[in-house]
């Protein structure tokens, strides 16, 4: 029954693979690779040593697919990054009101 629960979740995308999103003591939240609705499954249905972010396919860790997904996410985040102009110090925070001139 427990293995069947993971099998039912692992439909679609990347040959039935799921990515582990959240691990708790007794349950885990998994999402089908390629998109789909997250499901909660008994943690015992996952392979021993599984961690959050790992990809599971056919009851085994798929390290290659997991690494590929991590690279794709990193590349996507890099494309969304906004470059900081030279001379702009974001670490110092704003000093005073940004509308001080308008308030006077």
Task: Summarize the structure in short.
The protein has 104 residues and is α+β, with helices and mostly antiparallel strands. It has four helices and five strands, in the order ααβββββαα. The chain is elongated and about 60 Å long.
Task: Describe what this molecule looks like in 3D.
The longest helix is centred in the C-terminal third of the chain and has 18 residues, at 63-80. The protein has 104 residues and is an alpha+beta fold. A 5-stranded antiparallel beta sheet has the order 3-2-1-4-5. Residues 1-13 have low confidence and may be disordered. The protein starts with a helix and ends with a helix. It contains 4 helices and 5 strands, in the order ααβββββαα. Helices cover 33% and strands 20% of the residues. The chain has helices at 2-9, 13-16, 63-80, 100-103; strands spanning 18-23, 27-32, 39-42, 55-57, 60-61.
Strand content: 15-25%
**Order of helices and strands, N to C?**
HHEEEEEHH
Average pLDDT metric? 80
User: How many strand units?
Assistant: 5
Q: What oligomeric arrangement do these chains adopt?
A: single chain
Low-confidence stretches: 1-13
Strand order of the largest sheet: 3-2-1-4-5
Radius of gyration: 21 Å
Total number of helical segments?
4
Q: Whole-Å distance between the termini?
A: 71 Å
